[in-house]
């Protein structure tokens, strides 16, 4: 699940960031239809970070994907695990666009036509 294998955290002075990727993002028009619920995701993130920290406690663990999609979900996971944070990548722009573009388009459709 991690994008960097724990064995790569070799104490060389390099900051090692391990991202637990929970699969395809849910929601939106192209999101996954089946993902673990937030409780299962939180448990899985904690299990992966425990394994990562057991190899090297001097790493940064973060999460991404699956159920972890909106601002509320990474906040829950951050508060209930020992990870540092969330990698936003596509969810930050994708969900913002997917909610605003249809609203803007609908407002143009309401414009009167002569």
Characterise this structure.
The structure is a single chain. Helix 1 (38-55) crosses helix 2 (72-80). The chain has helices spanning 38-55, 72-80, 89-109; strands at 17-21, 60-64, 85-86. By secondary structure, the protein is of the alpha/beta class. Helix 1 links the parallel strand 1 (17-21) and strand 2 (60-64). It is 42% helix and 11% strand. The protein has one domain (6-109). It contains 3 helices and 3 strands. It has a 3-stranded parallel β-sheet, covered by helices on one side.
The total strand number stands at 3
Query: Which quaternary structure do these chains form?
Result: single chain
Number of domains: 1
Question: N- to C-terminal separation?
Answer: 57 Å
Q: Name the poorly predicted regions.
A: none
Radius of gyration using CA atoms only: 18 Å
**Which strands sit side by side, in order, in the main sheet?**
1-2-3
Q: Sheet bearing the most strands, described? A: 3 strands, parallel
Please estimate the helix content.
40-55%
Shape summary? elongated
How much of the sequence is in beta strands? Answer: 5-15%
Helix-strand category = alpha/beta
The string of secondary-structure elements, in order, is EHEHEH
> What's the pLDDT, averaged over the residues?
78
Number of helices: 3
In short:
This protein has helices at about 40-55, 70-80, 90-110; strands at about 15-20, 60-65, 85. It has about 110 residues and is α/β, with parallel strands linked by helices.
Keywords for this entry:
3 helices, 3-stranded parallel sheet, 114 residues, alpha/beta, 42% helix, elongated, 3 strands, 11% strand
């Amino acid at each position: 699940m991690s994008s960097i294998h724990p064995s790569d955290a070799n104490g060389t002075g390099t900051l090692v960031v391990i991202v637990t990727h929970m699969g395809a993002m849910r929601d939106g028009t192209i999101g996954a239809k089946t993902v673990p619920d937030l409780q299962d995701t939180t448990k899985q993130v904690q299990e992966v970070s425990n394994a990562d920290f057991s190899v090297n406690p001097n790493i940064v663990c973060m999460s991404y994907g699956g159920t972890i999609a909106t601002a509320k979900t990474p906040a829950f996971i951050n508060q209930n695990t020992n990870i540092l944070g969330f990698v936003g990548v596509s969810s930050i722009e994708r969900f913002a666009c997917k909610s605003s573009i249809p609203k803007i388009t609908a407002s143009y459709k309401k414009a009167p036509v002569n």
